[in-house]
Amino acid sequence: MLRELWESLTDALQGLGAVVHFLFRLVANSPRALMRFDLISQQIFNSGALSLVIIMLSGLFVGMVLGLQGYELLERFGSEEALGTAAAIGLVKELGPVVTALLFAGRAGTALASELGLMRATDQISAMEMMAVDPILRVVVPRFLGGVIAMPLLAAIFSVIGIYGAQLVGVQIMGVDSGSFWSQMRASVGHADINEGIVKSLVFGVACSLIAVFQGYYATPTAEGVGRATTRTVVTSAVVILFLDYLLTAAFL
Amino acid sequence: MGPSGTGKTTLLRLITGQVQADSGTIEVAGENLRALSRANLYVLRRRMGMLFQNGALLTDLSVFENVAFPLREHTDLPERLIRQLVLTKLQAVGLRGAALLMPAELSGGMSRRVALARAIVMDPELLIYDEPFVGLDPISLGVILRLIRRLNDTLGITSIVVSHDVKEISSVADRVFLLSGGKVVASGTPQELKSYPSETVKQFIDGLADGPVPFHFPAPDYFGELLSRGEIL
């Protein structure tokens, strides 16, 4: 029993070490990969633009729910005008980065992992190595950087649309005064809040992209292995995002 | 040549430096693979071309771009020249007309021919084929077989073909090495191998079901197991 626990603990630590080592390899190769920005912009399109619809739709609905719940709660204290502030702070600092990252892991992360896993399973990675092309530099780093760049942009779009969703419900439907909704938001949401959101979404972007490319690149080269890598990408990403979110929130207080 | 699981593909991976040998040395074109740095290994690999079992074409690039891939990665040739080179290589494998197709639209034999064009686009000195005949219809198989021989002779290169198809290899190889259990058990021309005085070689060449490689997977005594109460199950 203890032995098993010890073994699974050392396994987990070894896994973590492998991921960190992989991250160093990616970072070390990043300057050279940046020389070919066309490859990276292609991946920003794949990870970012192709996730836009799901991000925007989810942002709208999350914002609308926030408007409804926030109104209901604030009305009890007679401070409905604070709805704009509440929604904006909730979205920019918390819901924007976290929900975007979870959706990003589900949409872009799985796509990355299965794509790389398939490349591994069909010998495309080995073929590149045989053509004297470094697959880390040519394939993995552009995908990683594409995800890292796309994630904060998506989170920002999510938050903006979410605020409009909250405004739609709060102002248009529930009748909060439009002027106070916006002016209170402007008065009380500061640089610090925005920065927290940006830092969080950047960190989540690194974590999600790293997990996805790691799982994909080291997937067992079979159909089953690719499937497992995809599942593991989502599960690991979700747990890591929420864990990091707590750490970062605590650090920003 | 050799039966499945004797280490043919492992040997290829060793020769190409994809895996490191635990002991011993491997020399390719006079270079000791173990002593080579990663950068120098990549320099050496530019002199090799390898055809993977299923072609291993990059699925997000067209046939043309797949063949152009090594040129774009390693050279600064002008676009016009790249086009000429790619088209001549595709013509050599008979697929110039398929230049704009995507890999998903190709049959197994066609993928392998495109991969062959890609493998020769950098004019290698050594071409390596990993099981090039597996799963091909007779026509595609004949095409690949003829291409292997023709490319070898016209380009003046060395070809290593790993396979377990006795007939096909015998018709194209100058020299055959038979592997069994991780060791070379016989070598010579295809003719010499046919009359090789060894049970292992004879079983493989003639495709006999039983011999040094037994038909039965190791198991306890048959009747004893049938008559027992079957605790192990």
- Give the biggest beta sheet of chain A: none
Estimated share of beta-strand residues of chain A: under 5%
Number of strands of chain A: 0
Order of helices and strands of chain A: HHHHHHHHH
The tally of domains of chain A stands at 1
Class derived from helix and strand content of chain B = alpha/beta
Task: Give the largest interface pair and sizes.
Answer: A-B, 15 and 23 residues
Number of helices of chain A: 9
Strand-pairing-aware structural class of chain A: mainly alpha
**Average of the residue pLDDT scores of chain B:** 86
What kind of oligomer do you see?
Answer: heterodimer
Please trace the helix and strand order of chain B, writing H or E for each element.
HEEHEHHHEHEHEEHHH
Query: Termini separation of chain A (Å)?
Result: 40 Å
How much of the sequence of chain B is in beta strands?
5-15%
Strand numbers in spatial order across the main sheet of chain B: 3-4-5
- As a whole number of angstroms, the C-alpha radius of gyration of chain B is 21 Å
Helix content of chain A: over 70%
Give structural attributes.
heterodimer; A: 253 residues; mainly alpha; 88% helix; B: 233 residues; alpha/beta; three-stranded parallel sheet; two-stranded antiparallel ribbon; 10 helices; globular
Protein model, in words:
The complex is a heterodimer of chains A (253) and B (233). Chain A is an all-alpha fold. Chain A has one domain (38-252). Chain A contains nine helices and no strands. Chain A has helices at 2-34, 37-47, 52-76, 83-121, 124-130, 135-173, 178-188, 191-217, 223-252. The longest helix of chain A has 39 residues, at 83-121. Chain B has 233 residues and is of the alpha/beta class. Chain B has a three-stranded parallel β-sheet. A two-stranded antiparallel ribbon of chain B has the order 1-2. In chain B, strands 6-7 form a two-stranded antiparallel sheet. The longest helix of chain B has 18 residues, at 138-155. The A-B interface holds A 118-119, 122-124, 126-134, 138 and B 16, 18, 42-43, 45-46, 48-50, 52-54, 56-59, 69-70, 73-74, 115, 118, 122.
